[in-house]
Specification:
This is Methyltransferase domain-containing protein. By secondary structure, the protein is mainly α. It is built from 13 helices and four strands. The strands form two sheets. It has a two-stranded parallel ribbon. It has a two-stranded antiparallel ribbon with strand order 3-4. The radius of gyration is 24 Å and the shape is globular.
């Protein structure tokens, strides 16, 4: 059955097209967002010179962060109700506003949090066993539990979305492009349930080499004859795994 809203987006958006336009606008105009989500890596904060923390984050943000520990900042970013904080129209110096008895968050930080939350996909998720799809065993190898959870549910969503597009348009999705594919777990998973062409895009040479190595290993693993024991007859039977490339 085709869902009323094909994308899990906030009710603030009237249509998926309006959401997509706003997402593209924010992702291509916010320099800070582009730096934090693609311009730098976590390791860069520890190794790059000059200091990435100082050169990337606004000074008023860094001054605010100095007043609180990490857990307070995480709470502000993920859980705090931002609306009432953004509603403070008077300058903080004049109004005397405080947050948790201390410094008040900069308006630019509150606006950034609001924009990111508004554009984030909803986190509601059906985790019942009946809704979960088993990942191919050759893909699950070397994946930790967090990655298995992510790939299982997102690949299921992509497959469901492709089916919705087919039901609405009367023709299947011909191509899916995964930008920033990393080790290409998602692409390798989608190869199994979909007849769609999966194209993975990544700029890092090390990740590309690792993904190709895993892909080669999985294909050879699928074609390697496996030795199975028939306990009742005490004989060995050679069974080949058949895989459609």
């Amino acid at each position: 059955m085709i869902p009323n809203r094909p994308l899990p987006i906030s009710g603030a958006w009237e249509t998926p097209d309006a959401y997509t336009e706003a997402l593209l606008s924010f992702a291509t105009t916010s320099v800070l967002f582009m730096n934090l989500c693609g311009g730098v890596h976590m390791v860069d904060f520890l190794t790059r010179e000059p200091d990435v923390y100082t050169t990337t984050l606004p000074e008023e943000w860094r001054e605010f962060f100095q007043h609180y520990d990490v857990q307070d900042i995480i709470h502000l970013l993920l859980r705090e109700e931002i609306g009432p904080l953004r509603a403070a129209t008077q300058p903080v110096e004049e109004s005397g506003c405080t947050w948790r008895g201390g410094a008040f968050p900069p308006q630019s930080l509150l606006d950034y949090i609001f924009n990111v939350r508004q554009l984030a996909l909803l986190r509601d998720l059906d985790t019942s066993p009946a809704s979960q799809t088993e990942l191919p065993s050759q893909v699950v190898m070397r994946m930790n539990r967090k990655k298995v959870h992510e790939v299982r549910h997102f690949s299921q969503y992509v497959a469901s979305l492709s089916q919705t597009v087919y039901e609405r348009r009367g023709e299947p999705v011909s191509h899916i492009v995964d930008f920033g594919s990393g080790q290409n777990y998602l692409g390798r998973t989608l190869v199994s349930p979909l007849t769609t062409s999966i194209s993975s895009r990544l700029s890092g040479s090390m990740s590309i080499s690792a993904a190709l190595e895993r892909w080669t290993f999985e294909r050879s693993w699928q074609r390697t004859p496996k030795l199975m024991t028939d306990k009742s007859r005490k004989t060995h039977v050679i069974a080949k795994t058949i895989h459609q490339s």
